[in-house]
């Protein structure tokens, strides 16, 4: 049974799903060293934001096939390292959207009505009403930075509360903004005009300290800022200062540059106009059930050899695409493997031509499958759908793609041409019926061969005696021929012979084969 490590608190429903296919160990609060020590024995790990999967940790996970993030943000995972190692990273893109949006809205209303301060006051024995006269959000301007899934829900609810909406999101279409009733503006205008600003964008190099001492200066004096997205998007020191000295109306933070928040952080001492929650945005019963099911199912599927529906590092290979393209993915991988073995050395360029019905399909997974096949003779099981493109890029293989929707002999076919150290090799393949793979052309010689594990290919002159000579030679070495195909362009010209054989061919036999008069070259292929 595969082993799964669950290193953050995950809803039991997720553990139950994982237990269908794996031995599950729940070990939370591991130190970085303990995590590194534990990881080598696991096939999968399921985490939330608490576990930091650094380069070192991922490299220690020699057997890891999948990292499951029960939530949205994967900024605690070194995704490039996972990709390099061929580990699929999945998340739950929508499982906690509502929870995070409602937390941001709760923060906005708490800031407006002094809920935390009034609660603390009454619990301390007082009955103070005059200190807590709030403001209404009705008719106020809310600036939403990042109008994705969470930002959109916040905007929708805020509109129902009667707020005027501004948004900044450089990747959003005007139509989408209009549909949400939001006015898309430049960041500076949003900063200047908003009474409330709420952040719903990822933390990246570009968004680091997006709100800083400079931007705080141009905001309205009563502005209230909410961050339920990621720590680090706001410069915490500048914010703490602005809240403390009354430069802004207040702020509410659920996320921090370093989590857990340091005991001595200046944020803890910034006064009651700064509301802090310990990363609770996704902490609702509903969201925790959603993300646990979503991610545990994906881990289960990947451990069973099926595709994941929300992989962040295999673009375009969700289950729908997988189902539709599966036979063509197998075809592309087989042809990539074949052309790689025929090339017999370094490959500099690979052209993938999609012909007929697949010319209109999503091509990226097909190209990735071809690269996986091409690299598998060199990299064996180290190459997979996750890292094939990266491995090819790092080897300097230039990939081109051509499409031709004209239907030729088959409804759909794939043609791969590789150029490398030993010149050019090309192969074509198609499907017989819905899923049977066929090799239909090798270096412009038409053939029709079902691929098999052991194969022998020869390039020879089309003349009497070749087939007999080869047959007896293999017979002498006790190699059984399962089937044989000859392809030629003209009578007595050049020809190829493709044999499916039941046994591996001794390497020394190739030299004997090329000594048969008329045989120019011979290749052993293992598919
Ligand atoms: N506090 C918590 O517990 C939770 C926090 N989150 C965080 O909330 C954030 C948003 O999540 P989703 O809405 O699900 O993501 P999403 O991917 O649906 O939306 C993000 C939006 O940010 C926009 N964006 C990217 N770069 C930007 C930039 N430089 N300036 C402005 N906008 C930019 C994107 O175009 C996109 O529309 C993420 O950082 C996520 O990790 C998510 C769930 C729970
Ligand atoms: O999903 C996200 O991005 C979150 O920030 C939620 O984090 P959590 O799973 O609650 O540690």
From TrEMBL:
Matches recorded under Pfam families: 2-Hacid_dh (PF00389), 2-Hacid_dh_C (PF02826), ACT (PF01842), PGDH_inter (PF19304)
Record InterPro entries: ACT-like_dom_sf, ACT_dom, ASB_dom_sf, D-2-hydroxyacid_DH, D-isomer_2_OHA_DH_cat_dom, D-isomer_DH_CS, D-isomer_DH_CS1, D-isomer_DH_NAD-bd
Main EC class the enzyme belongs to: oxidoreductase
Pathways per UniProt: Amino-acid biosynthesis; L-serine biosynthesis; L-serine from 3-phospho-D-glycerate: step 1/3
One BP annotation, GO: L-serine biosynthetic process
Single GO MF annotation: phosphoglycerate dehydrogenase activity
Protein's UniProt keywords contain Repeat: no
Assigned keywords, A-Z: Amino-acid biosynthesis, NAD, Oxidoreductase, Serine biosynthesis
EC numbers, comma separated: 1.1.1.95
Domain ACT: 455-527
Catalytic activity annotation: (R)-2-hydroxyglutarate + NAD(+) = 2-oxoglutarate + NADH + H(+); (2R)-3-phosphoglycerate + NAD(+) = 3-phosphooxypyruvate + NADH + H(+)
Similarity-based family: Belongs to the D-isomer specific 2-hydroxyacid dehydrogenase family.
Purpose: Catalyzes the reversible oxidation of 3-phospho-D-glycerate to 3-phosphonooxypyruvate, the first step of the phosphorylated L-serine biosynthesis pathway. Also catalyzes the reversible oxidation of 2-hydroxyglutarate to 2-oxoglutarate.
NCBIfam families in the cross-refs: PGDH
Protein name, entry field: D-3-phosphoglycerate dehydrogenase
Species of provenance: Tumidithrix elongata BACA0141
Protein's gene: serA
């Amino acid at each position: 049974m595969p082993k799964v490590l669950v290193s953050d608190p995950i809803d039991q429903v997720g553990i139950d799903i994982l237990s269908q296919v794996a031995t599950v160990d729940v070990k939370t609060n591991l130190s970085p060293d303990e995590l590194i020590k534990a990881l080598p024995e696991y096939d999968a790990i399921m985490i939330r934001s608490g576990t930091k999967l650094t380069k070192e940790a991922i490299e220690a996970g020699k057997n890891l096939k999948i990292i499951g993030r029960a939530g949205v943000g994967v900024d605690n995972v070194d995704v490039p390292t996972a990709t390099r190692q061929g580990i699929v990273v999945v998340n739950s893109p929508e499982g906690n959207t509502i929870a995070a949006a409602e937390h941001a809205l709760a923060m906005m209303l708490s800031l407006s009505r002094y809920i935390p301060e009034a609660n603390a006051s009454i619990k301390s024995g007082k009955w103070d009403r005059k200190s807590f006269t709030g403001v209404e959000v009705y008719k106020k301007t809310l600036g939403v930075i990042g109008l994705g899934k969470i930002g959109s829900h916040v905007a929708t609810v805020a509109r129902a509360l009667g707020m005027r909406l501004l948004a900044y999101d450089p990747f959003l279409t005007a139509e989408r903004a209009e549909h949400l009733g939001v006015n898309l503006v430049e960041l500076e205008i949003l900063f200047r005009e908003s009474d409330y600003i709420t952040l719903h964008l990822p933390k990246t190099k570009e968004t680091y300290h997006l709100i800083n001492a400079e931007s705080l200066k141009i905001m309205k004096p009563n502005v209230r800022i909410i961050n339920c997205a990621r720590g680090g998007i706001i410069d915490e020191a500048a914010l703490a200062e602005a809240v403390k000295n009354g430069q802004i109306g207040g702020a509410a933070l659920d996320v921090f540059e370093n989590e857990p928040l340091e005991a001595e952080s200046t944020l803890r001492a910034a006064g009651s106009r700064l509301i802090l929650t310990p990363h609770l945005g996704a902490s609702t019963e509903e969201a925790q059930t959603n993300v646990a099911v979503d991610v545990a199912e994906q881990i289960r599927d990947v451990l069973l050899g099926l595709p994941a529906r929300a992989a962040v590092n295999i673009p375009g290979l969700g289950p729908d695409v997988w189902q539709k393209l599966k036979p063509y993915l197998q075809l592309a991988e087989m042809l990539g493997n074949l052309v790689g073995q025929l090339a017999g050395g370094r490959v500099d360029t690979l052209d993938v031509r999609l012909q007929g019905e697949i010319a209109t399909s999503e091509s990226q997974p097909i190209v990735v499958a071809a690269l996986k096949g091409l690299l598998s003779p060199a990299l064996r099981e180290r190459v997979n759908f996750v890292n094939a493109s990266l491995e090819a890029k790092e080897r300097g293989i230039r990939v081109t793609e051509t499409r031709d929707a004209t239907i030729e002999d088959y409804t759909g076919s794939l043609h791969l041409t590789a150029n490398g150290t030993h010149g050019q090799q090309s192969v074509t393949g198609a499907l017989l019926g819905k899923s049977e793979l066929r090799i239909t052309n090798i270096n412009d010689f038409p053939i029709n061969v079902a691929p098999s594990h052991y194969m022998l290919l020869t390039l020879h002159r089309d003349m009497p005696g070749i087939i007999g000579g080869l047959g007896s030679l293999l017979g002498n070495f006790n190699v059984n021929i399962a089937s044989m195909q000859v392809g030629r362009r003209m009578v007595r010209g050049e020809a190829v012979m493709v044999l499916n054989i039941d046994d591996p061919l001794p390497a020394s036999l190739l030299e004997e084969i090329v000594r048969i008069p008329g045989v120019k070259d011979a290749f052993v292929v293992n598919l």
